[in-house]
Specification:
The protein has six helices and nine strands. By secondary structure, it is an alpha/beta fold. The protein has one domain: 3-Layer(aba) Sandwich (Rossmann fold), CATH 3.40.50. The chain has a seven-stranded parallel β-sheet, sandwiched between helices. α2 crosses α6, α3 packs parallel to α4 and α4 runs parallel beside α5. The protein is globular, with a radius of gyration of 17 Å. 40% of the residues are buried.
Length: 240
């Protein structure tokens, strides 16, 4: 039996944040392959998927007014919201700037909450799905050199759990994905990258596959939480 037979929400309109790079782009491409119309919020239109079903939405996720404007430009009811955009700054906490902390909170926490708020009525009416891309750091209490980032992801995971309990009777599904080290540009502001060995990091496409596996589960059964980890945990320090 195909996923289309088990889930009435197989195709429709999806909103994906971070849709022009990394995990968000991989998810957007997968949804396009599954016949979704995808509205994608991103920073660089030149890196957006080239597909007739993809609509680029320029928006600054750190600016609430920009987020509201982007949602208002969507034509048709959204049945799937994927909050995949994320920003991270690493280092001892005292080395971060207030602006960096504010950016992480805005993009990693406030934007997903705001988008969920703006779209919740139509998502509930469609018995749709919210998928939040969190991080394995949300489940740790020892995120040294990344304690602020880990805290934002813990907040996102907590929000996801509570939103599901609040809305589950309406038929809304809320799914949280917790990836570990993934080969994306998330570490551009870090002094390390995942080790290049293939068993030391995930790929964006693997995370997108996990998103689809959880999404395409039969109606009536919800995969609320998936944690993805590479076999080994090795990083490589960047050269100064």
């Amino acid at each position: 039996m195909s996923s289309a037979d088990t889930n009435k929400n197989t195709a429709g309109i999806a909103l994906v944040t971070g849709a022009t790079s990394g995990i968000g782009r991989a998810i957007a491409c997968r949804l396009l392959d599954e016949a979704f119309t995808v509205y994608g919020i991103g920073r660089d239109a030149s890196k957006a998927p080239v597909h007739p079903g993809f609509h680029f939405l320029p928006a600054d996720l750190a600016d609430a007014a920009s987020v509201v404007k982007a949602v208002a430009s969507i034509t048709g009811p959204v049945s799937l919201l994927v909050n995949a955009a994320g920003v991270a700054y690493y280092g001892p906490h005292e080395t971060l700037s207030p602006a960096q902390i504010a950016e992480m909170v805005a993009v990693n926490v406030t934007a997903p909450m705001t988008l969920s708020n703006l779209l919740l009525r139509q998502l509930k009416e469609a018995q749709g799905t919210v998928i939040n891309i969190s991080s394995v750091t949300a489940k740790r209490g020892n995120n040294t050199h990344g304690c602020a980032y880990g805290a934002t992801k813990a907040a996102l995971s907590s929000f996801s759990e509570s939103l599901f309990e609040e809305c589950r009777k309406s038929g809304l599904r809320v799914i949280t994905i917790h990836p570990d080290l993934t080969d994306t540009a998330l570490y551009r502001n870090a002094d390390f990258t995942p080790d290049p060995a293939p068993d030391c990091s995930l790929t964006a496409e693997e995370v997108a596959q996990a998103v689809w596996d959880a999404y395409s589960a039969r109606s009536g059964m919800v995969v609320t939480d998936i944690t993805l980890r590479p076999q080994r945990n090795l990083i490589r320090r960047k050269q100064n």
